Amino acid sequence: MKMPSEISIVESSFRDPSGFVFFKGDTLYRQVNKAYSKDYDHLMSSGLYDSLVTSGLMVSHQQADIDLAISDNAYKVIKPQQINFISYPYEWCFSQFKDAALTTLAIQKKAFEFGMTLKDSSAYNIQFVNCKPLFIDTLSFEKYDEGQLWPAYKQFCQHFLAPLSLMSYTDIRLGLLMQEYIDGVPLDLASKLLPTRTYLKFSILSHIHIHAKTQKKYSDKQVNVKNRKISSFNFRALIESLESTVKKLKWSPTGTEWGDYYEATNYSDEAMSEKEKLVLDFIRRVDPKTTWDLGANTGLFSRLASKTGSQTVSFDIDPAAVEKNYRQGIANPQNPVLPLILDLTNPSSGIGWNNNERASIIDRGPVDAVLALALIHHLAISNNLPLEKIAAFLSSICRYLIIEFVPKEDSQVQRLLATREDIFPNYTYPGFEAAFKQFFDIQHSVKITDSNRTLYLMEGKVSG
Amino acid sequence: MPIIAYLDPGTGAMIIQAVIAGIVGVGFGIKLFWANIKSFFLKLLGKKVKICKQSCSCNNCKASKNEDAE
């Protein structure tokens, strides 16, 4: 939604009447409305804001000129620290999701120390700066009144507890339910999908199963809940209970598609090390500010891009690979990348109101460079995607493309063709180059020694 | 009427929240009680022992561990 004078209101920030986020040109601003002035002043003057920013839990912001305000009910305009790449819960691996939940609770605990509480606990309020979760909604705090309940409890259970429990106890792929349900996984659905043994765990029994049944019981009844009060001690106990529930949820990457991919490639050590050198050389030639590594596995090549100073997002379809990538990023923060789950054959689409609330992956691009290494055969052969369509898609998301062609003679392609008819007469070097030349200029191509693969550096014909 | 009540907390969710908070409040009270007794005796013995409640390896626990270390 472009308005005159290049102001655009961020589509996801319409729910909260406390304020909203907008872009002026490339700069992000947040308008704080007059109605939120008391809570905003308390956040800033109580020391909570400083404490959250210093401990690296929340984005910082600067005061901006009030004349930038979009409407006359503005109290302040602030300029928040900008996040390079916005990711969504359905793109997070298990540990990212868990860390996002624990960050939300850590913020709630900190807020409580300063006489405030979170008024919502949307998973979308957490963003990742590489492997570090960061709370981005400065207007999520309200003053705590002694005796009040936590208004964000239901949302926390739907946005965090339900998907995390399902990923941990039922199936890791159920994190994708977050893409289907914009306000988190309905608790009755989570309750149905969780195994019976979770009824024996008090935390899951109470926060999900009984919670779901109580919601259903009171869904069509008018009950005055204003008289319901809990002491501040019990309020703290509730948050502690949620925290210990989340901490106990575990998932370890075993048995999915690519977990051991690097160990199972047909590359010799020598060829692998040469491939690394070539990729790094190509990256340095184009010196990208932003890079997406598609089919990144555990992020080996993403880290090469990061090493050159490029802000790198490391996508893979396999939750196990992304989990390993994330854990590796935490253990070794050198050359940081943002690991995310993405199925390229069905990439994140625009969802929510007007299909605009959460952006599609294409709308979050384009980037300077894309790495597509050992990927093309999965798209062209496993998914029957014509090479022209792959080239067209890649040209829409990047300016420079570093791509590896894996010919039919390669044992990995032979493996894919072993169980099916070869209906890919154009899947050859000439066919590949002809398809990609429609959208890219091939700048360099180098055969990787000790393999039958070739690495290409291409520049998009229509600059992104 | 505060503006911030923009999120529907849900009737059932509010009711069950109050009940759960009451139950976990008892457990939390006992936990704190024992922690106090334990730290009292440890102090009495002159031992400086810091009990780390963080047992997982996620970012938050690491951050709070680092804070503790500082």
Question: How many strand units of chain B?
Answer: 0
* Count of helical regions of chain B: 2
End-to-end separation of chain B in angstroms reads: 43 Å
- Give helix % range of chain B: 55-70%
- List segments of chain A where confidence is low: pLDDT < 50 over at least 5 consecutive residues: none
Largest sheet of chain B: none
CA radius of gyration of chain A is 24 Å
Question: Which key terms come to mind for this protein?
Answer:
heterodimer; A: 464 residues; alpha/beta; 7-stranded mixed beta sheet; 5-stranded antiparallel beta sheet; 15 helices; 16 strands; B: 70 residues; mainly alpha; rod-shaped
SSE layout and pairings?
The complex is a heterodimer of chains A (464) and B (70).
Chain A: E1 7-9, E2 19-24, E3 27-33, H1 37-45, H2 48-54, E4 61-64, E5 74-80, H3 94-113, E6 116-118, E7 126-129, E8 132-135, E9 141-143, H4 153-170, H5 177-180, H6 187-193, H7 202-218, H8 232-248, H9 269-286, E10 290-294, H10 300-307, E11 311-316, H11 319-331, E12 338-341, E13 367-372, H12 376-382, H13 387-397, E14 398-405, H14 411-417, H15 429-437, E15 440-447, E16 454-460
Parallel strand pairs in A: 10-11, 10-13, 11-12, 13-14
Antiparallel strand pairs in A: 1-2, 2-3, 3-5, 4-5, 6-9, 7-8, 14-16, 15-16
Helix pairs in contact in A: 3-4, 3-8, 4-6, 6-7, 12-14, 13-15
Chain B: H1 11-44, H2 59-69
